[in-house]
């Protein structure tokens, strides 16, 4: 059970605030349905209007999208300096996009996947819902964990 005096309250973000935050980062997590089970993959994305686009190669992500276009993308950030954390979730449909289309020309140039080789498929996420939360922490809300007791997390 959590004490409500210690737990920070999450602010619900507007769609406009969500899109602004999504534009401040370029890495998210794509959730797809693989053989009836959820799976999650990191993706480097760009915003194109009110949709996200990313490149992928042939493999599990592309096969899952072709089987079931219902997907979710989550992106987040934490600023220890400013005591702010946020998370945005987009739920919608994935569709193949043509990299030759004029509206994508400038956006596609900025897409550089971590594994750039063989990422010839351009996917657009057309949102059905866009939701987000922001949490502001102050010094009284920080965790006091001795360094020896801290759990080390690997790089994402």
UniProtKB/TrEMBL annotation:
<dbReference type="InterPro" id="IPR024747">
    <property type="entry name" value="Pyridox_Oxase-rel"/>
</dbReference>
<dbReference type="Pfam" id="PF12900">
    <property type="entry name" value="Pyridox_ox_2"/>
</dbReference>
<dbReference type="InterPro" id="IPR012349">
    <property type="entry name" value="Split_barrel_FMN-bd"/>
</dbReference>
<protein>
    <submittedName>
        <fullName>Pyridoxamine 5'-phosphate oxidase</fullName>
    </submittedName>
</protein>
């Amino acid at each position: 059970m959590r004490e409500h005096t210690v737990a920070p309250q999450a602010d619900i973000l507007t769609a406009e605030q969500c899109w602004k935050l999504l534009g401040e980062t370029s890495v998210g997590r794509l959730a797809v349905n693989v053989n009836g089970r959820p799976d999650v993959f990191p993706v480097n994305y760009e915003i194109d209007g009110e949709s996200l686009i990313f490149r992928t190669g042939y493999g599990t992500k592309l096969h899952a999208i072709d089987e079931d276009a219902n997907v979710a993308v989550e992106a987040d950030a934490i600023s220890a300096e400013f005591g702010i954390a946020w998370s945005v979730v987009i739920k919608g449909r994935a569709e193949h996009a043509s990299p030759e289309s004029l509206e994508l020309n400038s956006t596609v140039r900025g897409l550089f996947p971590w594994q750039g080789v063989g990422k010839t498929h351009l996917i657009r996420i057309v949102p059905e819902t866009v939701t987000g939360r922001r949490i502001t922490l102050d010094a009284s809300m920080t965790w006091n964990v001795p360094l020896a007791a801290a759990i080390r997390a690997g790089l994402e």
